Prior knowledge:
It contains twelve helices and ten strands. By secondary structure, it is an alpha/beta fold.
Amino acid sequence: MDFGIKNRLSKIFSPKTGRTVMLAVDHGYFQGPTTGLRDMKNIIPLVPQADCLFVTRGILRTSIDPATKTSICLRVSGGPSILGELSNEDITTSMEEALRLNASGVGMSIFVGAKNEDRTISNLGRLINEAQRYGMPVLAITAVGKEMARDARYLGLACRMAAEIGANIVKTYYCEDFHKVAEGCPVPIVIAGGKKLPEMEALQMTEDAIRAGARGVDMGRNIFQSDSPAGMIKAVRAIVHKGATAREAFDLYHASKGESGGKRSSSAEAVDESMEKV
């Protein structure tokens, strides 16, 4: 890789751990003002806790402090709303715009097996061709439309296709036998949070994915729709960057809500203290 891509990737993935906690807040580009993102002021306290913010240019311009030290990965695909055929996407944001906005990466969806599969993958190829000219990393998202349940065989196919086309990072979903997906993808994988889960389930999914080879998460609803978004992103960071277990992270989450119900475990306290240094 050239210096530009390496430098931008170092802003997405922590140089200390080689992992990332991305905060996905791009849902409005096809869902509108979804729960947790109706008022974008709600996500402002979460941004400093993320290594990277995955966001559209409109929200970046209107709602994010330009002084932020959190890196930006820009959503550059779109077209249909949730009411239409989701795979009917095109590239909506130029590379010049991404550079103007000082993005550290750009991201778009591909829909393997969907109606417009070929067009979304061709769009990815064109985006990568242009991004390479400017040293811009590309995140390919293996979108699954309205059906969230996919297995390792399907996700392994979609991730490998994205990497073969030239994506620098692939975002996909966690599944049973996820290690097979990670082993078959030669570029870093981050997992999507997907639909809203109970907090302990989301944290266990994060732990399992990291242990199976994921290099981080790009989580949205399981953070900003949580009862304690700040506590949830802190708990996710503990797993990704400090190797905390889901149980230890859940303890941190509860402590942030003031609902721990007693003395926390010494291991959770150690994780909490160490997180101040990450």
